[in-house]
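Hey, can you fold this one?
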Amino acid sequence: MRELLLIRHAKSAWSDTSLTDRDRPLDERGKRDAPFMGSLLRFRGMQPDRMVSSPARRARKTARLIAREVGYDKDAIVIAEQIYLGGRRAIVELVQALNDEDERVYVIGHNPDLSEAASCLTGESLGEMPTCGIAAIEFTVDSWAHVMEGTGRLKFFDYPKRHLTP
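Sure. Predicted structure:
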């Protein structure tokens, strides 16, 4: 059994127009939502064996904030260039190349790639994954190399706004 958690970066700031897309930071809501979603993962007992993040600043910060909440060493987060603007196929190939010693892996990245990868792997349409949204997918395979399109089962789909009280 393998578990993949596709996590969209938390809400980012657009106020500084001098920054490149890659350098955009999290805004205040993003800085609040990422630890909150990390605490929900901790509560569910879903600590990762490995965390892999896009090199974009907002994704790396999201990964570090979640790592702190789930008890994962932030210095052990792997940065994978192909997650940034690599497309759905790049994410699927990254998953297929994961180390089989790691049974639960978080991949922190961007839309539309993550939403498309989740739909591709599960055969379910999740629509647009919200910021800091998490799609948890189970695979009944012994090796990540055997993960194929449509072979995953959506375990849960969660995001911060589901937990807001009116």
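The mean pLDDT is 96. Let me know if you want another pass with a different chain boundary.
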